[in-house]
Amino acid sequence: MNTTRRSVLGKLGVAAGIAAALPWNRSSGTEPARLDVKDPAAIALAYTENASLVDAKSHPGFVAGSNCDNCLQLQGAAGNIYRPCSLFPGKVVSVSGWCKGWTAEM
Length: 106
Ligand code: SF4
Known about the structure:
There is one protein chain. This protein is α+β, with helices and mostly antiparallel strands and 106 residues long. The chain has a domain at 32-94: High potential iron-sulphur protein (High-Potential Iron-Sulfur Protein, Chain A), CATH 4.10.490.10. It is 21% helix and 8% strand. It has helices at residues 5-21, 40-44, and strands at 33-34, 82-84, 91-94. Strands 1-3-2 form a three-stranded mixed beta sheet, with no helix packed on it. Strand 2 (82-84) and strand 3 (91-94) form a beta hairpin. The longest helix is centred in the first third of the chain and has 17 residues, at 5-21. The model is unreliable at 7-27 (pLDDT under 50). Residues 47, 68, 71, 73-74, 85, 87, 93, 97-99, 101-102 line the site of iron/sulfur cluster.
């Protein structure tokens, strides 16, 4: 068998391309889904992905400057734009978002 370095690298490149194309290898398949603002649970708590758009008149409990990033319910690693929230299991929320469940960090 005559195996050259170039032929091995070529086969590895083809294999890597195939593996990357497989549906179960895509990162979106392993990450929790983003909470849809139309999800019934999201609607019940008036979740929005942009806290700066919250109408304080409609939501008198809204505290200026509050958002998911400074909420006690937010979980996961700092630095991620979407992170888990204890009120919405199995989903991730935008750190720029807000909902009626907002609780000040201690
Ligand atoms: S409970 Fe807090 S972290 Fe969760 S969606 Fe509401 S404001 Fe964001």
